[in-house]
Write a structure and sequence with these properties.
This protein is an alpha+beta fold. Helix content is 37%, strand content 25%. It has 22 helices and 33 strands. The strands form seven sheets. Strands 1, 2, 3, 4, 5, 6, 7, 8 and 9 form a nine-stranded mixed β-sheet that branches. Helix 8 crosses helix 11, helix 9 crosses helix 11 and helix 15 packs across helix 16. The radius of gyration is 41 Å and the shape is flat. It starts with a helix and ends with a helix.
């Protein structure tokens, strides 16, 4: 008997021998197709080719595509388990031709594989074709030795494939097999007749050959495609059932190892008659493993909600088999043993998949028992046979029952649920959520997996960079970020302007890379991503990134020094208004009403570095807040403090209330360099500075830049200022010489213009064009001094724009106004402008025929004069 592994390999190898290229399955969670929740067919990853949006990379392709049909248009979820062939997850074996071979080869090769490689009885095989497809009908006769009476025509419902309401489509030819009269499930009905594409289980489809040759237009007409395609699909589960001689897909080696584990763990043997729960669980765990491996995640929205429904449906059927504790996660290894040799993406993700599934099971089990009791109460008080939508929503909202679980429970009792009422309650909740403010943790009590009773987190990070601890609870969200609460921690949680520590939490089972820590009430919540394994044993080691922490402490203590020095230099009005203590830099906001002068900047930096070199001791102690203030400790305006506070004292230099981490002596800071100073709001200034390693890097970068400038100027570094001054003077001299030369050139041009002025009634008109990019303003200043009884119109092009200058001679003022004249000219080209009576400018789009516009200028000027 062929194994499913061998069947898959033989299909792929067969088409490789026919010059096909193997194409890996695309993920079941679509990467770039928002129109579907899950990949539900082999053609999904080739859709852009069929739509003409992308050129095919290969002419022939073969693969085994992972598919999920649950949710959306293709939804088999509620049918799974009731029979032997419905699934949420399945594999679609397929071969494709992108404008290469067509019907003849597709039919010939399908027949060859089924009858010569897999040795299926030809007398049991049937072929269907579309009513319009005479070509395929003839080819079945010509290229195969199928019984001619087994070839039949059928209509659009069974034998015409369409991608959507419009777009690529075409007839298809299906291959069916007769499994025998013993498989007919309608034989007890009077007048029933077993037929291909009938309504009983005797004849089943093995393979669908789709011939994409048309485009469905908006008016529903069909037009031929430029290229023709072949898209075939054969379900591996069904092919395996036939080749292994089984009565159901679930009896094949794709499912039985899982079903046997379920029977072993539950103590409930499997049979086709009583094994619906076994089938549901076996199907659903396959679906969950692939969906999680490909980036899916259970949640309350979209595909995440579908996955949560699948998981909870499986968990509910586990209850029917007697599972009181999480069990689904223990089936993951079996799925990977069956499928991992071909779908290698499953390997290495087993621990993660188990953790997510187990966390969901724990979360669901916490509420299921209470929810079942509540459901029984609702049913006991029910009048009639319909559970109100409000009650169904309460089960969803309070106990985490998805609607389909409530519907399943109701169905078992012969009841129904008001689904419209449920939808109305759901929408009302969403509206309340939109209006409500969001406070506190993103995790709710339902989200947490508790390993022990949570207690206030003990912070040990003032004295330790690593510590042992116990995981009290954890959670994981749809972005695969794990949240963990420990009994104690060396990790500083973001507060007081100091960023959180990073590092790792680990034991032999797993390692969690921590990227953030937040304090929520008395709990420190650590956020990270798994780099190894899955959370199991609660005993862990917690270890911060010590080098990063030391950079943070240098910057934090430096803000205290900076605060004191600023108040000393600028005045007592200086108060801290905010800060950010980051490993790479510090930011300090303070009250002050003007920018620091260069001398103040230098003095602040100088005094802070003097304090650093003094290597003053930094001490911390817990004090009564009133006593601390009485001793001169600075409290930050707007901060809330308890009765007892932590006081950070730097010898006799500084004393502040602060919960952050600090160096033991100021010398540990090394050096401080101010990088920038500026305004962030009225009366509030901001200094950004670097210390320690970052300051050395900053200085080194400045030195590199300084050396580069010296190299560019071809002078020693100590001569850069003199060289720049000399070059600046040289540039000014050249600019003055160019300006003088331009003025001489302009005067010569103006003299020519005056000579060529055309006499008009009452004035002389100059129309001229300057070189592209000329300085019209400078030209105008010279021109208007030379004009007497002249009106000058000067044009200058720049790319697709035209600038216009109008200047009026002194003797013509105020009778003629340059501003009005230039406005009249600009209107003709769709522009605008204006200016003084003696000189004005305008601009607009460059006319397509500039010479014609020049010819119109005298007439436009005269019209403008008349209007004036």
């Amino acid at each position: 008997m062929l194994s499913s592994k061998e069947i898959r390999s033989q299909f792929i190898d067969f088409f490789l021998s026919k010059d096909h290229r193997f194409v890996h399955s695309s993920p079941v969670v679509p990467i770039d197709d928002p129109t579907i929740l899950f990949t539900n067919a082999g053609m999904n990853q080739f859709k852009s080719i069929f739509l003409g949006q992308k050129e095919p990379e290969v002419a022939r392709a073969v693969n085994s595509q992972k598919c999920i049909r649950a949710g959306g248009k293709h939804n088999d979820l509620e049918e799974v388990g009731k029979d032997g062939y419905h699934h949420t997850f399945f594999e679609m074996l397929g071969n494709w031709s992108f404008g290469d071979y067509y019907k003849k080869e597709a039919i010939d090769w399908a027949w060859e594989l089924l009858t010569e490689v897999w040795k299926l009885d030809k007398n049991l095989l049937y072929a269907t074709v579309h009513n319009s497809d005479k070509e395929a009908y003839a080819l079945w006769h010509e290229v195969t030795d199928i019984d001619p009476s087994h070839i039949t025509y059928h209509g659009d419902k069974d034998n015409f494939w369409e991608m959507g309401d419009t777009g690529p489509c075409g007839p298809c030819s299906e291959i069916h097999i007769d499994r025998g009269t013993q498989h007919c499930n309608k034989s007890h009905l009077a007048g029933h007749k077993c037929t291909v594409n009938g309504d009983c289980d005797r004849f089943i489809e093995l393979w669908n050959l789709v011939f994409i040759q048309y485009n469905r237009e908006e008016d529903r007409t069909l037009s031929p495609l430029k290229n023709r395609y072949v898209d075939t699909g054969a379900g591996l589960e069904r092919i395996t059932q036939v080749l292994q001689g089984k009565n159901s897909n679930y009896e094949t080696d794709l499912f039985m190892p899982i079903i046997e584990k379920i029977a072993e763990y539950s103590g409930v043997p499997y049979s086709s008659e009583t094994g619906m729960s076994h089938r549901v669980i076996a199907d659903h765990i396959r679906c969950l493993c692939f969906a999680l491996a490909d980036g899916g995640f259970p949640s309350n929205e979209g595909r995440g909600y579908v996955l949560r429904r699948i998981l909870r449906r499986a968990a509910r059927h586990g209850r029917l088999l007697g599972f009181a504790e999480p069990f689904l996660f223990s089936l993951v290894d079996t799925v990977i043993q069956i499928m991992g040799h071909h779908f290698e993406e499953l390997k290495g993700k087993d621990a993660y998949i188990k953790m997510v599934i187990k966390a969901e099971e724990v979360r669901f089990n916490k509420t299921l028992d209470k929810g079942l009791m509540k459901f029984d109460e609702i049913c006991a008080q029910l009048r009639g046979n319909t559970i109100a939508g409000k009650d169904a929503f309460a089960l969803y909202d309070t106990y985490g029952f998805p609607l389909d679980l409530s519907m399943m429970l109701a169905e078992e009792k012969g009841l129904s649920i008001d689904q419209e009422g449920f939808a109305a309650e759901m929408e009302a909740q969403r509206e309340r959520a939109r209006k409500a403010s969001k406070f506190g943790s993103a995790q709710t009590e339902e989200d947490w997996i508790e390993l022990s009773e949570p207690t206030p987190t003990i912070f040990t990070g003032y004295d330790k960079s690593s510590d042992t601890a116990v995981i009290q609870r954890y959670s994981i969200n749809d972005r695969q970020v794990v949240a963990v609460q420990l009994s104690q921690t060396p990790f500083y949680a973001e507060s007081g302007g100091q960023v959180a520590d990073t590092g790792r939490i680990y034991n032999d089972d797993f390692e969690l890379k921590i990227h953030d820590v937040k304090k929520i009430d008395d709990a420190f919540i650590h956020y990270g991503t798994l780099s190894r394994g899955a959370i199991a044993s609660p005993q862990v080691n917690a270890e911060i990134d010590l080098e990063r922490r030391e950079d943070i402490t240098r910057n934090h203590t430096a803000t205290h020094l900076l605060h004191k020095v600023l108040a000393s230099i600028l005045g007592a009005h200086v108060q801290q208004k905010g800060s950010l203590v980051h490993p790479d830099y510090l930011r300090f906001d303070f009250t002050h009403f003007q920018a620091l002068s260069p001398s103040e900047w230098d003095e602040v930096e100088k005094q802070v570095n003097q304090a650093i070199r003094a290597n003053m001791k930094v001490n911390t102690k817990i004090q009564d807040i009133n006593r601390a203030k009485a001793e001169g400790a600075t409290a930050l305006f707007g901060e809330k403090y308890g009765d007892e506070v932590r006081v950070v004292t730097i010898d006799a230099f500084s004393k502040e209330l602060c919960g952050g981490t600090h160096v033991s002596a100021t010398g540990d800071i090394g050096i401080l360099k101010i990088v920038s100073e500026g305004s962030v709001a009225a009366g509030i200034r901001r200094i950004e500075a670097v210390t320690g390693r970052a300051a050395l890097t900053y200085i080194a970068d400045l030195q590199k830049s300084y050396a580069k400038v010296a190299e560019m100027l071809n002078c020693p570094q100590n001569m850069i200022e003199q060289k720049l001054e000399a070059q600046k003077q040289h540039i000014q001299d050249l600019e003055a010489k160019i300006k003088q030369m331009q003025a001489s050139h302009d005067q010569a041009e103006i003299a020519k213009m005056l000579d060529s002025a055309s006499p008009q009634e009452g004035f002389k008109l100059i129309v001229a064009e300057l070189d592209e990019g000329s300085d019209l303003k400078a030209f105008a200043e010279i021109l208007k001094e030379k004009l007497r009884d002249h009106i000058a119109v000067i044009l200058c092009k720049k790319a697709d724009k035209l600038s216009i200058l109008v200047a009026v001679g002194k003797v013509l003022l105020p009778q003629y106004q340059a501003g009005k004249l230039v406005s009249a000219l600009a209107q003709k080209i769709g522009g605008k402008g204006g200016g003084r009576p003696d000189s004005a400018m305008a601009g607009g789009p460059l006319p397509t025929d500039l010479d014609k516009f020049k010819e119109l200028i005298p007439q436009i000027i005269k019209s403008g004069i008349c209007e004036s």
